[in-house]
Request: fold
Amino acid sequence: MQAAKPQYQHSIPQFILRNFDHPFVCPYTPNNSSKCKKRHHEKGKHPGDRVVDCLQLLPDGFKIEELSIRRICSLNDMYTDRSSTAKFPRQLEVKFSRLESRASSIVRKIVESQEHGQSDVKLTRTQRNILRKFLLLLILRGSGPGSLKRVYGKTCN
Reply:
């Protein structure tokens, strides 16, 4: 079986990151122009691309930098089953993707109602269950093995 092209898979979904993003502005752009001079930009950082400000902790302090929402909080093939018996190696990511899609529409509904000044949001039982599953999986997949400790206690066993 031939190896499939690697896929970026996010531990924090992009629909959540989009709530905090802003368009990238090249620091070398002249004040009166919307276009920058020909510069070699970092991967995923071209004028107008969606970026978020990130805090990077360093041994001697910290650094704040702008990173693309397409590349942040992601790894290649995070949920790919690499065992030789796997018939569909990306099955888990496909299921996460479906759940994220459903949760995204529910979160969008909540955010839009909040923006319109509504104090209450009506969710069906099914919508609440989808949101619960999504939030639990978001916690579990967020930090690797340590995330299980948050749910089950001191050990993962």
Observations:
- Residues 79-157 form one domain.
- Residues 146-152 have pLDDT under 50 and may be disordered.
